Amino acid sequence: MTQFLLAWEFSEETEKSKMKIYGFVVIMVAVAFAFAPAKLTAQDHYAVKLTSPVAGQVLYAGQQIMVEWKHRLPNIPLAGCESELWLSLDGGRTFTWNAFLAPTSTSLLWTVPNTPTNSAVLDIRFGCDLHYPESYAPQPASMFTIAKTQ
């Protein structure tokens, strides 16, 4: 009889553990849905077009230039969001970070680095902590040159 009671008590504890795990999983799924965008339409996606520098432009190391772009931000709360400027020196194959920006920014006074290349490309990214994935937006149609200072 004692063995039967021990087996029954163990079974009850196992069921309680399963219920706790089940409850935890349900809560995690609910949290994931709470932070996920409800439904993204075409106008809810991030889009950007670089307007300066332009394709073929030659910039010189140390020069200050106003990098400018036009963008469409998703229709979401911008709390926790940011934009970032990334630079590629190899035509857009790899990028290195350059600056954090406010999500509504459309320009940046940029000092051209001393990294000569004929295939510089900028990427203006946008993303929000927890509720909008980082969106990459390389601008290969606006490839420019970085030359040594004259």
Short structural description:
With 150 residues, this protein is of the alpha+beta class. 23% of the residues lie in helices and 38% in strands. Strand 4 and strand 5 form a beta hairpin.
Could you walk me through the main structural features you see in this protein, from its secondary elements to its overall organization?
The protein has one helix at 2-35; strands spanning 47-52, 58-60, 64-72, 81-88, 96-101, 107-111, 117-128, 132-135, 144-147. Residues 4-8 and 38-43 have low confidence and may be disordered. The chain has 150 residues and is of the alpha+beta class. The longest helix has 34 residues, at 2-35. It folds into 2 domains: 1-36; 42-147, Immunoglobulin-like (Sandwich). A hairpin with a 7-residue loop joins strand 4 and strand 5 (96-101). It contains 1 helix and 9 strands, in the order αβββββββββ. Strands 2, 4, 5, 7, 8 and 9 form a 6-stranded mixed β-sheet that branches. Strands 1-3-6 form a 3-stranded antiparallel β-sheet, with no helix packed on it.
The CATH top-level class label of the largest domain: Mainly Beta
Q: What general outline do the C-alpha atoms trace?
A: elongated
Query: What is the helix tally?
Result: 1
What is the N-to-C succession of helices and strands? HEEEEEEEEE
Specify the helix fraction band: 10-25%
Q: Taking all residues together, what is the mean pLDDT?
A: 84
Please give the largest β-sheet: 6 strands, mixed
CATH architecture classification of the largest domain? Sandwich
Low-confidence stretches: 4-8, 38-43
User: What is the rounded Rg?
Assistant: 26 Å
CATH superfamily membership of the largest domain, which one? Immunoglobulins
Number of domains: 2
The proportion of residues in beta strands is 35-45%
